[in-house]
Amino acid sequence: MPRSLKSVMVAVALLGTVAACSGGAQQRDEGVHASAVCGKFAQAPSVASALAKLAGTARFSEDGSEPNKALATLRAADGKVDDSEMDGVPKCILRPPSGGDHLVTVSFREAVVVLKANPESEKSYTYYRTGASASASHRWATIYFRCHMTKPEKNVIINASLERESSVKLSGKREVDNQMLVANAAAQDVAQQLGCQGTNLSKGAPEAISGVYGPHRVSSSG
Fold first, then answer.
1. What is residue 101's DSSP assignment?
2. pLDDT at residue 147 is higher than 60
3. Rounded distance, CA 193 to CA 109, Å?
4. Among residues 22, 21, 109, 103, which one has the least CA distance to residue 62?
5. How is residue 38 annotated by DSSP?
6. Integer Cα distance of 87 and 191 in angstroms
7. Are 72 and 193 in contact (CB under 8 A)?
8. What mean pLDDT value characterizes the chain?
9. Is the pLDDT score of 107 beyond 60?
10. Quick one: pLDDT at residue 19?
11. Treating both helix axes as pointing N-terminal to C-terminal, what angle do 67-75 and 172-194 enclose, rounded to 10 degrees?
12. What is the β-pairing status of strands 140-150 and 133-137?
């Protein structure tokens, strides 16, 4: 083989290697799509869309998420919750693909009581029909649901909470509805993995039933 032709072939091969490497780096930089993050809990188009609206991006890094610990902690639930457990375990932490601050965090913990709506809390929160009790406010959503497990055999109350950063300017009913939709999908995913029965979690988008953006408030303000 002529030396000049061999040199050209080597150069082409090297360019291909560099392109493949840069393509892999680009793919990593692009992050994970909303529909595929954290075990694909947001794979439904409506949930993926809501998550992207809350975060201001449809691509994420999942670094820092602790799905195995979250599930193990719930399986070990013993009916007691101390102060160190109140923040829950972050099953899903979503950041920009390049890293940085949290955009959306979904955490889970055991609860010993279900916090339900009352006249005072309804002035600040919107309550939804899903689980045993569910509410949302600016940058925050929480769901309590009951779980009858068979492996191991026990009945527990689980709390799911969603918190988002303020970098995305979103407010009003659109904000709280999207937060609740994402939180409910995450709760359904955990309930399925634990084999929970009797959760009463909404199959679709949870309906606002009282509070700030409940039907009576919305109609009276309109």
1. S
2. yes
3. 15
4. 103
5. G
6. 19
7. no
8. 87
9. yes
10. 43
11. 70
12. antiparallel
Q: Give 129's contacts (C-beta < 8 A, 6+ positions apart).
A: 202, 206, 207, 209
| Pair 189, 178: CB distance under 8 Å | no
Task: Look at the chain and count its residues.
Answer: 222
Lowest mean pLDDT among 11-20, 164-173, 191-200: 11-20
- Residues 46, 205 contacting (CB under 8 angstroms): yes
Mean pLDDT of 46-54: 97
How is residue 111 written in tokens?
A: 């609860």
Residue 184: both structure tokens together:
């409910």
H-helix segments, the chain: 3-30, 45-55, 67-75, 172-194, 215-221
Q: Residue 8 — pLDDT band, cuts 50, 70, 90?
A: very low
Identify the sign of the CA torsion 55, 58, 63, 68: positive
